[in-house]
Specification:
Blueprint: E1 4-9, H1 19-23, E2 28-30, E3 36-38, H2 46-55, E4 61-66
Bound molecules: iron/sulfur cluster (SF4).
Keywords: Electron transport, Iron, Iron-sulfur, Metal-binding, Transport
Organism: Neobacillus rhizosphaerae
InterPro entries: Fe-S_cluster_ET
Length: about 70
């Protein structure tokens, strides 16, 4: 019940495509350098966040599940 997740964006890889924001707009936003950043790990359903991670063209998003 309610497994926690942690979400990381590798800003060295991020190309600012905004694809993750399309899938999980309450979780990711672009920072002032045009790189995705996590604003709220509970912003979207975890399956939406997973979709966002899967959709990232350069796999910059890592999700860690705390069992
Ligand atoms: S989908 Fe990937 S490359 Fe695009 S903004 Fe998000 S983290 Fe960056």
């Amino acid at each position: 019940m309610g497994n926690r997740i942690r979400v990381y964006v590798d800003k060295n890889k991020c190309i600012g495509s905004t694809t993750c924001i399309y899938y999980a707009a309450q979780t990711f936003t672009l920072d002032s350098e045009g790189k995705s950043t996590v604003v709220n790990v509970d912003g979207n359903d975890s399956n939406k966040i997973q979709e966002a991670a899967d959709s990232c063209p350069i796999n910059a998003i890592t999700i860690v599940k705390d069992e």
